[in-house]
Amino acid sequence: MKKIAVEPKSGRFESLEAAVVAGGGIIASIEEADALVWADPAVPHELPSVLERARAVEWVALPFAGIEPYVPYLDTERLWTCAKGVYAAPVAEHVLALGLAGLRGLATFTRATSWPAQQGTNLIGGKVVVFGAGGITASLLGLLEPFGCHVTVVRRTATPVAGAHRTVALADRLEVLGDADLVVLALALTDETRGVIGPAELEAMAPHAWLVNVARGGHVQTDALTAALADGAIGGAALDVTDPEPLPDGHPLWTEPRAIITPHVGNTHEMGIPLLAAHIEGNVRRFIAGDVLDGHVDPAAGY
Amino acid sequence: MKKIAVEPKSGRFESLEAAVVAGGGIIASIEEADALVWADPAVPHELPSVLERARAVEWVALPFAGIEPYVPYLDTERLWTCAKGVYAAPVAEHVLALGLAGLRGLATFTRATSWPAQQGTNLIGGKVVVFGAGGITASLLGLLEPFGCHVTVVRRTATPVAGAHRTVALADRLEVLGDADLVVLALALTDETRGVIGPAELEAMAPHAWLVNVARGGHVQTDALTAALADGAIGGAALDVTDPEPLPDGHPLWTEPRAIITPHVGNTHEMGIPLLAAHIEGNVRRFIAGDVLDGHVDPAAGY
Predict the structure, then answer these.
(1) What was the ipTM of the complex prediction?
(2) What is the spatial distance between Cα B262 and Cα B245, in angstroms, rounded to a whole number?
(3) Closest by Cβ to B115, choosing from A115, A120, A247
């Protein structure tokens, strides 16, 4: 049996204690515990004083994907895990929600007040181009698997991505965009990727294709997109992130029939709690069984 | 090599000839052909005169799922196939599009003209109750597989459905509805299932749950649903079929913030053509290889 402390008694404390119990662990004080599940991402500075009271803690579970505030406290005597990858799944689900909504005419249908004409394109058997090769893309490839889509990943270099049918370098993006029914932005915002979707990329896209952005608003040149939508140059755009963000009142995208705007809800706080709990439950089960833990942190690398 | 005739020279003739060639078949006249792909669902009565000219046809491929008009012409000397199950996939995709749209707030977001408050529930890890155990449900179970949902199927009898976590009889529906994040109607309309969603069923549903109907409008008691939505008794309803259908101008569902109406687009004519072509291509490949064909028809049973 393994004794596990959940500290501090704030944050997501209750759902994480339940997750520890569900995983087979016994809730214990930090003094007696074999492991510590850190419950409140808002108070990293309290971690050292809690760990000082620990006598047998072999494993510390951190609740966030990015653990920058905890890096000063990492050590090599214990195992450290974080929730990397855990929050990618809801964002990938939002990509699918937005992509299906776009291709199947929901931008038009949801605003109709009279029986509208039929429209719609299947995603099943379609062609998808995804920018980015991180956790969101990995989750999305899993969700897309039963759709039998042909998936191209665009990333900085052309190093192949597992599960994709084709991987091309960012510099070659214009060569693959014309092929897509759905173009998804799920990449990091860097100097190299800022404004990566501009007039040339929009012109390369097929007239029925939808653009979905769940990355950062700055990836898309908003004025070029607004013009392309007004011209009917692409099927439409579904944006969970915008530039500027929030999109100001009166912006033409609010009334553009080919646009869907969602308020940065790929992963909301409420969506994250059960996912974090499932991650902790699984890791508690692995800790008890002596298996390798998910989300292992390398203290030297700091991630 | 196998010679295949595509007749008559109307209907979906061109895309089906291309599918035969893609599957490795050689296009031939009906007199020389080893198989016949029937291209025009509108003219079943022309089939006998075409078959009279056939000398070596071992297999006849019919283009529809329901083959009632062809039943008088079936024989036991040849293999007969139809497109059963082929058109279920787009409808299942529409279920997912509508379910995700509902749970993730798109009914609200698509109508906003100012940055809205966050909302949304994950389908990943959620609970789904599906009425019906036919082709649409089978396809939907496949699409839902990577979501890790707990799926309950409600059908006439409680005979277990492959891929579902639980199967219950229609008479016990009130016992499982309260559990669902998403309730899907994908069943046949019979005297037993007409109005199957009424005041008691809507009251049993969770306040955040969405109802998706891709079956027939008559499954839902429209007035009860309209009242439940106005009261906020359920999360919302996404209807691809309505009663009456089309939904008349001025109906309160057109302006109900918790409703999404789509104009019977689960499977449009345009969506069906490539799916039928893929079905024919696959069966031509199997015919050449001597494998069992998809969509086998039992001439005695007539389906």
Answers:
(1) 0.84
(2) 11
(3) A247
Each residue's pLDDT expressed in tens, for chain B with a length of 303 residues:
899 999 999 877 899 999 999 999 999 999 999 999 999 888 999 999 999 999 999 999 998 766 888 989 999 999 999 988 888 999 999 999 999 999 999 999 999 999 999 999 999 999 999 999 999 999 999 999 999 999 999 999 999 999 999 999 999 999 999 999 999 999 988 999 999 999 999 999 999 999 999 999 999 999 999 999 999 999 999 999 999 999 999 999 999 999 999 999 999 988 888 889 999 999 999 999 999 999 999 888 777
Domain spanning B3-86+269-289, CATH class: alpha beta
C-alpha pair distances (Å), A49 with each of A78, A143, B68: 16, 42, 76
Helical segments of A150-296, H only: 174-177, 199-204, 222-231, 269-289
Q: Spelled out in words, what is the top-level CATH class assigned to the domain B88-261?
A: alpha beta
Is A264 among the residues known to form the active site?
yes
Q: Report helix, strand or coil for B206.
A: coil
Query: What are the sequence ranges of the domains in chain B?
Result: 3-86+269-289, 88-261
Catalytic entry in B245, B251, B256, B285: B245
CB contact at 8 A, B98 and B238: yes
Residue with tokens 């004409």: A117
Question: Which residues in chain B are contacts of A94 at CB distance < 8 A?
Answer: 104, 120
